[in-house]
Amino acid sequence: MNIKTSPRTGIFFRIAVFLLLGVVQLSAFAQQKSYTIDVSKSTKEIKEGQLQLGGADPKGNKIAVNNYYISYNNKAIIPVTGEFHFSRYDEKYWDESIKKMKAGGISMVATYVFWIMHEEKEGVFNWTGNRNLRKFLQLCADNEMQVVIRIGPFCHGEIRNGGIPDWLLSKPFAVRSNDAGYLAAVDKLYAEIGKQMKGLFFKDGGPVIATQIENEYQHSAAPWGMTYPGAPYDWTASARDKAVTHEGVAVSEVKNPYAELGRDHMKVLKSLATKNGMITPLYTATGWGNAAIIDKESIPVTAAYAYPTWTEKADISPFYQFKDMTKNPDYAPISYDSQQYPAFAAELGSGIMSTYVRRPTVPAESMDALINRCLGSAANGLGYYMYHGGSTPKGDFFFSDEAYGYPKISYDFQAPIGEYGQVRPAFHRLKLIHFFLKDFGDVLAPMVVTLPQGNEKIKPENLETLRYSVRSNGKSGFLFVNNFQDDAKLTDKQDLNVNIKTKTETISFPIAIKSGENAIYPFNLDINGINLKYATAQLLTKVGTLERPRYVFFSNDGEKPVFVFSKSADLKINNLSACTITQSGNEWRVIPNFQASAEFSLEQNGKKTRVLVITKETALKSYLLTTDKQEAIAFSDALILQDKEELKFLSLGKSDFGFSTYPKATIIPLADSRFTQIKDSSPLDNYRINLPVIKPELAQNVTGEDKVQVKLPTLDKGLNDVFLNIDYLGDVGLAYLDNNLVADDFYKGLPWNIGLKQFIGNSKQNELQFYFRPIYKSATYLVDLLPSAKPTFAKDAKLVDIKRVSLVPEYTYTLKFK
After folding, report:
1. What is the pLDDT of residue 3?
2. In the chain, what are the domains?
3. Which residue, 68, 284, 446, 643, is the most exposed by fewest CB within 10 angstroms?
4. Which residues of 716-755 are buried (b: 16+ CB within 10 A; e: fewer)?
């Protein structure tokens, strides 16, 4: 058919055809029930020796790096790093916080050394109290926690001047340059840091295994704190680099004529660090957005912030779509050859800071979905910024970056562990992946990513198409599925199939995953010599002993777990509890039928193995324990912290709670009248702890619609903390102790949650005084608030309301075991 049209009619015709094709395409997405991916040719060339990284400790333990992963004693690992700033937290509780991070599956702590906090006045260094770096590192060593030290000199971290002292502004040289005066000042700083860390490096048998040099060099800067309302920002960057300087983490398309000078500066900084004793097997550098790295001498790390406050508005990000991060890192273009380095996603936004004008709320589901996507995109290192929040101290100025409009004190970051040590839902969701990496990171790390054909054409706005990838060696591997997207709601995915073509067969995965969830499924996994062909349950951990291993899986919400094993002549599978087991020509099929847990056993060639299957609800309550006999897993509504042969339970608001352990008889509690064992047929040992009820007395005095005073309660024996919750409507909340500002909060529609133990006993007045500023109808951040948090303005153009004040005790109980 030959259709003649006028130019204008032709335009409308093409638009109509385009729209029609779009409808057809969307309809095809909606109808697609089966997906196929070919992993049979998945290979990766591993290059050794091209990077000048690695080292050994006095015991002979070795760390090495190739172009794809890091190894420890020749075993591939996927390290999990959590950012925690020691100077933003009370030193009395550092040990507890490190134990909390360890309980969450963190293997390395990353921390900044903020220059401005340690040398606020030129030549006068302060390493005492909450600034005691050496004490913090020693506590990390005591808890067998490795450390990444971020020594600046520029840090950012939402600190005034990005951590550079005010007095440097007056000097006759450019900061962040090779000017001799600037380098001399940095040399003095590095010398002081080196003294604090002497004997604590990996080479000495200490915990410090990595050093980050500078931060976002030739990419980002901070405004000098000496500024004025309405004034353009005066950046903490050398004059030559201001043309390429960004506000926050961003894609950088600007050509940098001084890139070579940037690499040279980074190399000079490293030489100053090593000169002052900071010699570590690993060096890192922020590598996104064309930032400079130390070529072949540092691991360039990547970032992903799905809820940034430095953009003009909220938008759908690409960070929940699978890709090959070794070929196309986030925030590309970059200044280095990504094929020469492991993809280390070391600054993942597990939360975000509020600014006065932008206040997004980060859902817990976004955090593990982001990790799923990164691992399924070839990332072989993970890091969270922040993993543990804190409170920014005050010096001659507020150390917080006031020019950017951050809170004066709060650095909560909506992190998995909050400003006062509160453990949040994201903590529990993330640890499910961390436990998996601890036991199976060596299996996953060498595996390469395969993406579905046409994957690059899927847009973040597409809510229908299944998002998945596979990491494998061509025969075995893991299927990654992500059904979360920031600022959008993906559809539930039901009755789908993913067909994975391996070198020898095609494995068909039935998929059922709810909107907002994610999953990792194994195929052709070696279970103590037995081949698990596939499972529609997620692998959590391996416990027990080498002789009698026990594998723990959990079922994701909305799906029925199925385990399919390859049949062999001597394989036996027995139902221990709540399973249906059937055989066909070439496979065994196990279907757990349970409310809480199911267990079955495998036996082949005299080797015995058990498999425990639990619900995701139960898995979220899990903690890994170590005894002198074997590894174990525990489950509890309370937080469990292990210290050798003691378990410390922290229970928020509940004086009675249960805990369970697997395998049975792993933990034998010493006699204590406060707990009882529950005898049943469960595959777990079950206990109940009953503590005396404590009700902290709330004494408050409301002196207006915007002011209230709260007496500090006593911290009774049996309590770890008392949390003050204030449900309010307003703009900003300010808390004063003895007339000093000690806490603040930017309203996001969530109750303000304050841990009081650091204030109890440290006040003359023994009282917190609160003032709440009103929220105005013209507030720019109203667009960020969740629908339930948006106020209704009637006649009034401003609102303030102190709705409810309450105290919640956090109980503590220590159980000793044999």
Report:
1. 28
2. 55-442 (3.20.20.80), 448-626 (2.102.20.10), 635-690 (no CATH), 701-810 (no CATH)
3. 643
4. eeebbbbbbebebbbbbbbbbbeeeebbbbbbbbebbbbb
As a whole number, the mean pLDDT across the chain is 94
- pLDDT by residue (tens digit) across 690-704? 999 999 999 999 999
Query: What would the DSSP string read from start to end of 648-716?
Result: EEEEES-SEEEEEEESTTS--BPP-TTEEEEP-SSSSEEEEEE---------EEEEETTEEEEEPPP--
Task: State the residue for tokens 């757990």.
Answer: 592
DSSP one-letter code for 86: G
- Tally of CB atoms within 10 A around 204: 15
Query: Which residues touch 794 (CB under 8 Å, ≥6 apart)?
Result: none
Pairing of strands 656-662, 631-636: antiparallel
The CA distance from 190 to 730, in Å, is 44
Q: Which amino acid type is present at position 23?
A: V
Closest to 771 (Cα-Cα) out of 738, 805, 800: 800
Longest dimension (CA), the chain: 92
58 half-sphere exposure, CB direction, 13 A CA radius: 7
Residue 617 per-residue DSSP state = H
Q: For 414-463, what is each residue's pLDDT tens digit?
A: 999 999 999 999 999 999 999 999 999 999 999 999 999 999 999 999 99
Mean pLDDT of 281-290: 97
Closest CA to 718 of 696, 694, 697, 695: 694
pLDDT grade, residue 604 (50/70/90)?
Answer: very high
pTM (global) more than 0.85: yes
Q: What is the pLDDT of residues 134-180, one digit of tens each?
A: 999 999 999 999 999 999 999 999 999 999 999 999 999 999 999 99
Q: Which tokens sit at 567? A: 């049949």
pLDDT for 681 equals 86
Q: Per-residue pLDDT for 798 more than 50?
A: yes
Q: How far, rounded to the nearest angstrom, does the alpha carbon of residue 154 sit from its chain's CA centroid?
A: 23
Q: Which of 684, 720, 716 is nearest to 814 (CA)?
A: 720
Q: What is the DSSP letter of 423?
A: B
